[in-house]
UniProtKB/TrEMBL annotation:
<dbReference type="InterPro" id="IPR011701">
    <property type="entry name" value="MFS"/>
</dbReference>
<feature type="transmembrane region" description="Helical">
    <location>
        <begin position="211"/>
        <end position="230"/>
    </location>
</feature>
<feature type="transmembrane region" description="Helical">
    <location>
        <begin position="363"/>
        <end position="383"/>
    </location>
</feature>
<feature type="transmembrane region" description="Helical">
    <location>
        <begin position="134"/>
        <end position="154"/>
    </location>
</feature>
<feature type="transmembrane region" description="Helical">
    <location>
        <begin position="74"/>
        <end position="93"/>
    </location>
</feature>
<feature type="transmembrane region" description="Helical">
    <location>
        <begin position="45"/>
        <end position="67"/>
    </location>
</feature>
<dbReference type="GO" id="GO:0022857">
    <property type="term" value="F:transmembrane transporter activity"/>
</dbReference>
<protein>
    <submittedName>
        <fullName>MFS transporter</fullName>
    </submittedName>
</protein>
<feature type="domain" description="Major facilitator superfamily (MFS) profile">
    <location>
        <begin position="174"/>
        <end position="397"/>
    </location>
</feature>
<keyword id="KW-0472">Membrane</keyword>
<dbReference type="InterPro" id="IPR020846">
    <property type="entry name" value="MFS_dom"/>
</dbReference>
<feature type="transmembrane region" description="Helical">
    <location>
        <begin position="99"/>
        <end position="122"/>
    </location>
</feature>
<keyword id="KW-0812">Transmembrane</keyword>
<feature type="transmembrane region" description="Helical">
    <location>
        <begin position="250"/>
        <end position="270"/>
    </location>
</feature>
<feature type="transmembrane region" description="Helical">
    <location>
        <begin position="300"/>
        <end position="325"/>
    </location>
</feature>
<feature type="transmembrane region" description="Helical">
    <location>
        <begin position="277"/>
        <end position="294"/>
    </location>
</feature>
<feature type="transmembrane region" description="Helical">
    <location>
        <begin position="337"/>
        <end position="357"/>
    </location>
</feature>
Length: 397
């Protein structure tokens, strides 16, 4: 594939990432609040977001299998269709005051989000190996636009129909998925070679690699904690009588913080290695939890979510780069799908738990619980780094 064609693909994938990422931000900004409005029990307020994550987890392996057999382009179109269905069904659910229909919409939204997260791997396939961290970072950086687009869409559409709060927001989300599909139609991915379609090593063999285990563990903890805290934050701010506009702004800066570092994360990985970048991400996540424990004023939530976003970027992009080092070309779709399935499957537990914990114990306990997995991941990475240094010293002695 030529450099021009590869760059064009990355630009289109980044644009689609921005639009589709805006849809996910809309869900995180409004899902728990709409759930609180429609649910028969307030403890179920975060269930729509949990179902969104279930959709992500349940669609990763099928998406990988379809991509392996038919190519990524078909998966992209199916994902966009799910995004359209999410917007339409969510609007219908709000109009009918149906918690069930709104939750069903979130299932399709999660499927869309699962497909969107494969854009980063698709971008890496369009460039030589030495430029893969850069390609990953550029597509992830497009989330910076999503960080503005999603919350601003919520702010300007949430009360267009005053008697049905957020209904126009989800109509807008469906339209964004339509535009994303149109952009993706122009993506020209490398053709599947016979070697790619041929199965590689058994997954049972591949997953025994210590590097892949580390990558999956860090991906799980980084993404689960980000979801656990981000899901709870808007509802926690509402419980503290902070305005909806303030909640939207906090989430906007969180998503900007998630994706803005992507402009240089690839360079950091190239210079310092993925392990050290992931370690920095985990430390920043720990700092965000500490801020969350410090208070419940608006600025506490803002700073907590900004640090959480930067920590997620370093942790997730770094872990994704580690995954790319753990498989052959013929194994890429199955390994990448398994990685995302494990990451999103773990997120389901955090999402389901967050609503009940928040309603029963409050935001402080949410933050306190997040400390333990952060410490586990940091200890694991530091041990891994020590083993690598020890092994290198033995080979050179």
């Amino acid at each position: 594939m030529s450099t021009t064609s590869g760059n064009s693909n990355i630009f289109r994938l980044a644009t689609a990432q921005a639009l589709a990422g805006g849809n996910s931000v809309i869900v995180y900004a409004t899902g728990a609040i709409v759930g609180d409005m429609l649910a028969p029990d307030k403890a179920l307020a975060t269930l729509p977001i949990s179902i969104f994550v279930v959709g992500m987890a349940s669609c990763t392996l099928p998406a990988g299998a379809i991509a392996q057999r038919y190519g990524r382009s078909l998966v992209f179109m199916l994902g966009a269709l799910c995004g359209i269905l999410m917007g339409v069904l969510a609007a219908i659910g709000i109009y009918l005051s149906s918690f069930f229909i709104f939750c069903a919409a979130m299932l399709f939204g999660g499927a869309y989000a699962a497909v969107v997260l494969t854009f980063r791997f698709a971008a890496a396939e369009c460039v030589p190996e030495n430029r893969q961290p850069w390609a990953l970072s550029i597509v992830m950086a497009a989330g910076l636009v999503a960080g503005v687009l999603g919350p601003q869409t919520v702010t300007y559409t949430m009360d267009l129909w005053e008697s049905h709060l957020f209904i126009a927001t989800y109509v807008a989300a469906a339209l964004m998925a339509v535009v994303s599909a149109a952009v993706l139609l122009g993506v020209d991915l490398p053709r599947l070679e016979a070697a790619v379609r041929t199965p590689g090593r058994p997954l049972a063999v591949i997953v025994r690699q210590p590097r892949l285990i580390n990558a999956m563990l860090c991906g799980v903890i980084t993404y689960t904690l980000m979801n656990f805290l981000m899901t709870s934050a808007p509802l926690a701010m509402k419980q503290e009588d902070l305005s909806l506009e303030s909640s939207n702004l906090a989430l906007q800066w969180h998503v900007i913080a998630m994706y803005a570092p992507s402009f240089f994360t690839g360079k950091l990985i190239h210079r310092f290695g993925a392990n050290r970048v992931v370690l920095m991400g985990l430390m920043l996540t720990g700092a965000s939890v500490a801020v969350g424990l410090a208070g419940v004023q608006s600025y506490h939530f803002y700073l907590c979510l900004v640090l959480l976003g930067i920590g997620w970027n370093f942790g997730f992009v770094g872990a994704s780069a580690l995954v790319l080092q753990c498989h052959k070309t013929s194994e890429r779709n199955s390994v990448q799908a398994l990685n995302d399935f494990i990451v999103f499957g773990a997120m389901v537990l955090g999402s389901f738990a967050s609503g009940g914990i928040l309603n029963r114990y409050g935001w402080t306990v949410i933050c306190a619980l997040a400390f333990v997995p952060v410490l586990v991941a940091i200890a694991t990475l530091m041990l891994s780094e020590h083993r690598v240094r020890y092994s290198t010293q033995e080979r050179t002695s």
